[in-house]
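Cross-posted from the bioinformatics board.
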Amino acid sequence: MERSSTTPGGSARREATRQKLYEAAVTLIAEQGFSATTVDEIAERAGVAKGTVYYNFASKSVLFEELLRHGVGLLTASLREAAEGTEQEGGSKVDALDAMIRAGLVFIDRYPAFTQLYVAELWRTNRAWQSTLMVVRQQAVAVVEGVLREGVAAGEFSEEIDVPLTAAALVGMVLVAALDWKSFQPERSLDDVHAALSRLLQGRVSGRGQ
Amino acid sequence: MERSSTTPGGSARREATRQKLYEAAVTLIAEQGFSATTVDEIAERAGVAKGTVYYNFASKSVLFEELLRHGVGLLTASLREAAEGTEQEGGSKVDALDAMIRAGLVFIDRYPAFTQLYVAELWRTNRAWQSTLMVVRQQAVAVVEGVLREGVAAGEFSEEIDVPLTAAALVGMVLVAALDWKSFQPERSLDDVHAALSRLLQGRVSGRGQ
DNA sequence: ACTTTTGCACTGACCAGTCAGTTCAAAAGA
DNA sequence: TCTTTTGAACTGACTGGTCAGTGCAAAAGT
């Protein structure tokens, strides 16, 4: 009974139930927002009884917080993997950033609802899960900041760049472009979007020609 | 039945009350979200009775929609003004973009709550005010797209850039960087942030030295 | 001048409905 | 057997929206 809810020590059955609840909650909350989403709705969409929700999570807020941790865990793992991929084949740091942009797009492509919900909640204040959100944000941005710092150290990037702010700007670039892509031009290919953002990243916007 | 001369379409008193309600609602909704904010709270913060809210607006949603229109009106006016400013002194299109970035930062600096709320709601689906939000988004992005197109036409930008996507990415860059600035490093100056974003815009990130 | 009327703007108690969270006996796995 | 899920009933707090009534300043009436 004491089984910690985050650790994968729970039974496979319980874990499967949790997964279903995550998936139900993430879409509903992305569409309607946290407050407008009822626990009854989540249970219904997940195909379980309301009691099951409270058997698996202490409260609606706790369910949401664990959902956040779960999702950002996936994202950071994906970003890190992308950066390390270019590392091992001796790519430059711009290549690493580019690979992370692609990883970000792939993530958003796969989990659009989570991304929506994350953006919608990130800059709110006075909320119960504010601290969770801060931790989780820092984990994600830190990966980008890390690559920027390495780039500066290696002399590939200007020493004058503002690492935290540039990281935030890059994340914002990908985030907003991707959400717009999904919302307003969902038929475009990921490669297409990636190419456009690459161009922007590498400053190939001004100046004519390719 | 005398028509008040100060404000066409409503008495000055009424207009003042509406303004108070906008201000109260924008901060509360930015902090807590639409659903989590109660009409009682809005009324209390505005210093009016609950009935007054419903005297001035048909419903909670309508209040919110009019608030969105009001705010985005201010933003687009500001962006257009910035772009036209560089136009008249014969600046390049990059200068226009740069001026708009600054205008965006100034706006976010002055109305941080509105920006938060806008970002939080923009990509939601299945909401009553979805159509309002779309219109309002298009108004804002169109200003940036316009400058990009003019830049392409003038040969200043590559013909291969993807105008809508690049516009979205630029907006996202400013938006996220600014929200992070306000949330996590509020002591920094606007000039500082502007400089960092300018550098990114002009591709002066890679390559060493300034 | 000065009294009465009009109607806009506002008030706040009130209502009907909703929702998170609880409880628990019984059923279904494993 | 022990864990997990079910499902329905219940509670108590809260919320969007309503409405009969108040205050007041300008217009109308005398």
